[in-house]
Amino acid sequence: MLHIVNKSHYQSGALASCLRLARPGHALLLTEDGVLAAAKASAAASGVAAVLATLKVYVLQPDVEARGLAGRLIEGVGAVGYEGFVDLVAEQPTNQSWI
Fold first, then answer.
1. Pairing mode, strands 78-80 and 56-60
2. pLDDT at residue number 88
3. CA–CA separation, 33 and 10 (whole Å)
4. Cβ-based burial of 83 (10 A; exposed 0-12, middle 13-18, buried ≥19)
5. Integer Cα distance of 27 and 92 in angstroms
6. CA dist list (Å): 37 to 59, 79, 80, 87, 94
7. Neighbours of 72 (CB within 10 A)
8. For residue 49, what is the domain's CATH number?
9. What is the pLDDT of residue 68?
10. Whole-number Å distance between alpha carbons of 85 and 6
11. How far apart are CA 6 and CA 97, in angstroms?
């Protein structure tokens, strides 16, 4: 399953709910303000750092760049472009957008 979160953990409980229900082997894609959760400064507080051992975590690279976070993400998070976003959706049997 691919979980997609587009809200910052500062403004919404969507990421916390997602992380609580995601299972090992699932993938998480952070888009829009959701990418803030993968920044070195906030990954521990957001919970993203703790799930890297069990979830594949990705960020949408254009959103990372738009927020000035290039080079400031925690290790283990993969960056994808729009084509990679489409590939993730196509690879996963189900997708869940968290709002």
1. parallel
2. 97
3. 9
4. exposed
5. 9
6. 10, 13, 16, 22, 23
7. 13
8. 3.40.1260.10
9. 97
10. 13
11. 8
Q: What is the mean pLDDT of each run of 10 residues along the chain (99 residues)?
A: 97 97 97 98 95 97 97 97 97 95
Q: Is 90 helix (H, G, I), strand (E, B) or coil?
A: helix
Give me the domain span that covers residue 43: 2-98
Q: How far apart are the first and last CA of the chain?
A: 16
* Block residue for tokens 């254009």: 62
Torsion angle of C-alpha atoms 68, 70, 72, 78, degrees rounded to 10: 130
pLDDT at 33: 98
CA distances from 66 to 13, 15, 22, 60 (A): 23, 20, 27, 10
Number of domains making up the chain: 1
Token representation of residue 74 = 């925690």
